[in-house]
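User: Can you help me understand a structure? I only have the sequence.
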Amino acid sequence: MLEVEALATAYGQSQVLFGVSFGVRAGEVATLLGRNGMGKTTTVRSIMGMVPIRGGAITFEGRPLQGLPSYLVAQAGIGLVPEGRQVFPNLTVRENLLAAAADRFRRADPWTLDKIFALFPQLAGRRGHFGSQLSGGEQQMLAIGRALMTNPRMLILDEATEGLAPLVCIEIYRAIESLKASGLAILIIDKNLRALTRTADRHYVLEKGRVVWSGVSSELVADRDAQHRYLGV
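Assistant: Let's start by predicting it. Here is the structure, written out as tokens:
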């Protein structure tokens, strides 16, 4: 569904990605793993057209994405839950969700406010509260809901549970597992390795802007050396 081939990205004279290649299949949950500063968010920003790439190719459902502005990447069917959540602080929960609502692919069962509130019941009672009045966990739920209201064909979550309380993390991963069961393709960046190996199908580990390890969950769980070398603190 998503193919990233030999991706190279730089900020000015500082190159960050050196030939990153990976893919996400239809209905699959894949992860980008690695320590901070290894290029995970830059990879996402490259896919979404937020930074220009220096080389390589990005293809989504057979359509080249490189060179497209962010809004056209989103309209192609990729929903982004950005690092830091970035909800609209002066809009209510309901307004945040409606501001992003779109159904460009004429889904038989599109996302609605009721479906978002069923996925995240905690938001239902907060629908009239402003984004700035929400806890960090509620803001993350809202950011996921806002992305889903675009009715994407693939969802990208950058730092899915960063800084969230353990109970909120459980709720977020419960929602991710529900989305996976619905057939939605998902790409996740997160540090919760136990939850990721339980939920995701395939993993790609970045080290200094390169993919240095890839495999399925059972292989990553068994490869303690890779965990220590690339993911340990």
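Now, to help you interpret it: The chain has a mean pLDDT of 95. Residues 1-75+192-233 form a domain with the Rossmann fold fold (CATH 3.40.50.300). Let me know which part you'd like to focus on.
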